[in-house]
Fold each of these.
Amino acid sequence: MQIFHSNLLDSFSDITHAFTTKDGGVSGLNYNSLNLAFHVQDDAKDVESNHTLLADTLGYQKASLVYMKQIHSNIVHIVEKNDNFKNPPTCDALITNKIDTPLMVMVADCSPILFYDKKQKVIAVAHAGRAGAFKNIVKNTLDTMSSKFNSVCENIYISIGANIKVCCYEVGIEIYKEVKKLDLDYGVDIKKEKYYLNINKILLKQLLACGIKKQNIDISQECTSCNTDKYYSYRDQKRTGRFCGVIMLK
Ligand SMILES: [Zn+2]
């Protein structure tokens, strides 16, 4: 199984984290790879096997995994007693200070974001596609970490996994108009009258504006749409699996 670790987060011994790829899953009916999402017309048994495989590889209990029914919102959910593998909450960000409770965000082009507060021992994940970035889900997540867990931004480390980059993210004029309205023009490159969205530029600026230190932010340089042999890409193939970012307090 090919998985990646953020060098930044890897230096902390009290968390486990990873970003997965397509590699290493069961030879399932539909995807023949490590698809982790149940809602993408894969065989549920295969998806569950992939989760078991990943849990065993990273050393957590699958039953205690909390993933999300992601809806492209900016809803942040604090993990509760009833949240588990069989009962995922509907939201686009999760926060917990509970140990042995892995949090997972699933993506195919959208940004998987992992958060770690080394002082308060709090972790979070967020799903930021275009909508999540436009709605500033990272700010919502950080504000909730601050208000509910007394997190301070200077103690928070952030890793953003592979996502679709400006090279491949062409958008129409209507999105450009929306971007301008939101004062996010800096996040669009215009080339030969075509518009390309730079989600990482938007996310980075939002994180810095919240007070996250630049040296505490780690962004994968890989584009999912340029590397479809390695990552799922929704832009490339509408019907596709999902890879993940996952983080747990030990
Ligand atoms: Zn690309």
Amino acid sequence: MDLEKIRSQIPVLAHTAYMNTGWSGPPPRQVAQAMKDRIDLELEKGPIMPEVLEAGREIQYQAREAAAKVFNATVDEVLVTRNTTEGLNIVLSGLDWNQGDEIVICDMEHGSVIAPTQLIGQRYGLPIKVVHLEMSDSSEVILTKIEDALTSKTRMVFISHILYATGRRMPAEELRKVTKDRGILLMLDGAQTGGHIELDMYRSGFDFYSIPGQKWLLGYEGSGALFIRREHLERIHPAHTGGRGIARPADANYFQPVSDSMEKFLGGSVSVPVQLAFLEATKFVQAVGIKNIEERNLTLADSAKAKLAEIPGVTVNSPLERSASSGLVSFAIAGQEPEPVVEQLWANHRLVVRQVGNPAGVRASLHFFNTEDEVDLLVGGVRELAR
Ligand SMILES: Cc1ncc(COP(=O)(O)O)c(C=O)c1O
């Protein structure tokens, strides 16, 4: 990994210790440039001139192919979306829920898991079972707790693959075995995984999986991707549709949705510049290699956690065992609210982290472009504040 070259391609790193990829990753120059070029093309030639339209369609197709590669899935199982949350909602609002169906989630979840699930629960009168997790729970304990919540009525388990607040990597593969044996659907919120850890829909057997473009893939806001295992595609109804979702020719007296195809979820037009940014961003991270990125992020996180844990008054909220770790490192300073800590790290060191809730803490996102020196800057900054 040519770190110097990679860092030179991400301009913000020249003046900022950027550790907030878990919110939004810093874009590489070529990602922004590709988007600007496309905007210029539309500006100069017009947005719907034949060659511009044609190039736009090709970009959309390539973006979809790129997403399929990130998932290790086939193109027909993948849709480029506008964000993680949209993908999750497509599945939840598209399934035919039956009276009594239960959905299992956890209490350390992000709002993008909680809100759409509770909404569906309210709408269809479904019981939502919330599994209580402790920060100290091991993967085995988490698995047991979730397994204990399953009943003959459980239709779906829906969790984040990496928890946003602690960075815990959930035991999703093991959970898949448990749910599959019982005929239960497993949906994963991959907001913190795409571009961060290697994904393999083919091997893992997950049913539904949604990722963003703007975080660890280093694309722009307004892009993401959804995977739906082919065998489920027919049973997910498009909760909203439009001109792109009907079989041709359109007939006002007749509705025939595009069946068995991810296109049925497309309502109207999409942003080609943003999809191009998604495409270029996937190329950027894939040139480095997502397996290499995963390894490097874990190494940086291990180092940060070990050094932070040595500071008196600092508690590391992220798991220490490597198999449950990620590039997200959360910590708390005794007697201090997270928000002022975030502000001080910025004011004193131009270091960007964020506060998180449940459990409350400061979260540093360590991605492959970060350095050991930046980790030391964080540790030094926290040591000053903890004094
Ligand atoms: C676990 C989790 N889910 C969902 C989201 C929302 O992602 P998006 O804005 O791509 O929908 C986030 C991002 O903050 C997240 O951390």
